[in-house]
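Hi, here's the filled form for the chain we discussed.

Project: internal
Contact: R.S.
Residues: 356
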Amino acid sequence: MAMTIAVDAMGGDHAPETPVRGAIAALREAGSDLEILLVGDESRVRPLIGRGFGSGLRLVHAPQVVGMDEPPVAAVRSKRESSIRVGLELQKSGKAHAFVSAGNTGAVMAAALATLGRVETISRPAIVTVWPTRREPCLVLDVGANVDARPRHLLQFGLMGHLYAREILGRERPKVGLLSIGEEPTKGNELTVAAHALLAGSRLEFVGNVEGRDVLEGSVDVVVCDGFVGNILLKFGESMIDFFTDAIREAVDRSLRSRMGAALMEPAFASLERRLDYAEHGGAPLLGIDGVVIIGHGGSSVKAMGNAIRVAKVASERALHRSIERAVREEAGSGTPAGADETPTGVGAGKSGGAG
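And the returned structure, exactly as it came back:
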């Protein structure tokens, strides 16, 4: 069965051109297994579609746009015909299996909670990102959905990360680590010490605490942390990649010998750039929502948008949100939804795309 993905054509720094081109690229790769609904202002989107893409690409008019700097909750409430809200309504009504947006992260999360709601057994949704390491890429979550968290939330993040690593990354027995300031169970703040006890008592392949230096080593498949720490880690990691890339270029340009050496090393540099490029992994899934929502980086390229759509398609085919619901219910050992009385807290970092 073909998957239908709703794509926010108005989201991101380079909308609508980049989302439209990314959607066309994804269609060309997937063929008849994919249908895409481009959601956005018809007057701006239709001229970019062109001809010859058949029934696989359709346009859904949404006249309003949520800006990258708008307050998320207020924008979602006041702009009910925004591309974000309309795209999520398409999923809720069953006309789409997933929604992809590189727009305002906070607005996407607020609208997803209001429109789709949470998976019944999940207290707090979490944004997960794929992180490059010395070995295989790992997952880090939460990277921005919750600035405050409780121990049981981190346990649920671990369960969701475990399932994502298994179902999407193909890790048979994903190793889960808790980000802290020391390896000992007693190291860290009250949150991490209490969360360590819960994770250690779970059925996860929990290896204990991991420190910041361990993330890039690739010693675990899933790194668990609260959204405050995770978002700082994400922003720092992105800036370091840019810093080292620019530093290498500056060093190469200083002499003819360096430029000649760089020419010989070009294949190695290209391989490294692909390894570090967020575009290779698409967007950041918002796990714990009762549906499939992929949040792209605000500066997403055509390649990144295409890969985000691919991730949405795979997650839809495998009904990841249903696997999460079952796993958390089994871990809790009862039919009572965990933390259902709580109100999820959106991230303060969420005025920009891609988890802040």
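Let me know if anything looks off before we file it.
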